[in-house]
Specification:
rod-shaped; 49% helix; 193 residues; alpha+beta
Length: 193
Amino acid sequence: MRHIKTARQGNPVFQRFGRIALSRFRKNRDGVVAIEFAALAIPFSLLVFAILESCISFAAQQVMANATEDIARQLRTGQILAADMNETELKQLICDDLEIIVSSGCPELEVDLKEYASFAAAAAVKTKITSDNDIDTTGFAVTPGKSGTKNMLRVFYRWPVMTDLMRKSMSNLKDGKTLLFATVTWQNEPFED
């Protein structure tokens, strides 16, 4: 065995063949694009999906915030009276604006509309998450105040993360969903009750 190694090392034919094969290997660029694409395809796909998922979620958040502001303005000015408002009516008003981007009937929509004694009392209200990673809707109600009262409307939507690759990193609720949230606090104008 030792004799073969020394014969190859000392043999100029083997040395020349080795140099030629090595130089051909270095110069041969066939398949490089395929290898580079394979190496970059997964990170590129993750980046594209993250951008798309974030953009769609952000658009949904903005539509929900606009719908919440619009309903709050109507309540503040007396266009919608407290006597005419219940949970079903409020959800339907918000859902009418949201249905452009969510499932029909807004199945994951939660609302909380209450009258408060002061703005400080409204600011003290916290959103709680249950032990199984869902919104704690205990205490949610629709009880708006009459003219001159301070009110707060909170709207929640359990937004599904659509891309399987992004679900683990982008979701903060159970079942691969993320929480969209909008709130408005105001004092009603003096209108006829």
